[in-house]
Amino acid sequence: MVKELRKKGVTFYLCEVCGFAYKEKEWAEKCQQWCEQHQSCNLEIIQHAVPLEE
Predict the structure, then answer these.
(1) Is 42 within a domain?
(2) Which of 34, 8, 51 is nearest to 16 (CA)?
(3) Which of 8, 13, 24, 37 is within CB 3.0–4.6 Å of 28 for a Cys-Cys bond?
(4) How many domains does the chain fold into?
(5) 23: left (phi > 0), else alpha (psi -120 to 50), else beta?
(6) pLDDT tens-digit profile of 6-31?
(7) What pTM, to 2 d.p., does this model score?
């Protein structure tokens, strides 16, 4: 299950394995599933990641 984080009124979804953040829950779930199965990141998935602005 991915982690939800609300920041400045925007919801981000975090991969609990690698910590990448996504605006779409679907991408965070794909990322987490990949990370758990392969113990690595997938470049096609993480290109959808977004920065968590401080």
Answers:
(1) yes
(2) 34
(3) 13
(4) 1
(5) alpha
(6) 999 999 999 999 999 999 999 999 99
(7) 0.91
